[in-house]
Description:
The protein has helices at 63-71, 81-97, 105-119, 121-131, 137-147; strands at residues 11-19, 24-31, 37-43, 50-52, 58-59, 102-104. It is of the alpha+beta class.
Amino acid sequence: MHCPFCSACETKVIDSRLCADGFQVRRRRHCLECCERFTTFEVMEVVMPRIVKASTKIEPYDAAKLRRSISLPLQKRPISIDEIEAMISRIEKTLRQTGEREISSKQLGEIVMNELKAIDDVAYVRFASVYRDFQDLEAFKAELANIKPKGDSHD
């Protein structure tokens, strides 16, 4: 870290503390050349993979778009905002854990469908009907058949 006063390369950390609920590190530094003190803040940079659309167009990851895509099928379902936010966090964690710079929109859609299926069958089918572009009742019935064995509830 260069000194902001004299631009020297040699600075020494004299104190480090967590701040911003543990999402930042505050470091108090001392310049070994001019003896000035200054504070730096270190934040984690989370790089999300870019999304490769079916058209091969590449878009940056958009958390707001993901939130909208998930919120629509969950409308009027008994799922709390906290559950939705937890699901979005799990999806984002899964994306980061791929370690990839790019991920296909199809892969992202499958991750979302798995999360929705675990939370709410109706929301899952709503999302799948748009995502998989069901063209007829048979395709819809086939998707429903995939979720029947899961539980004993009748939504």
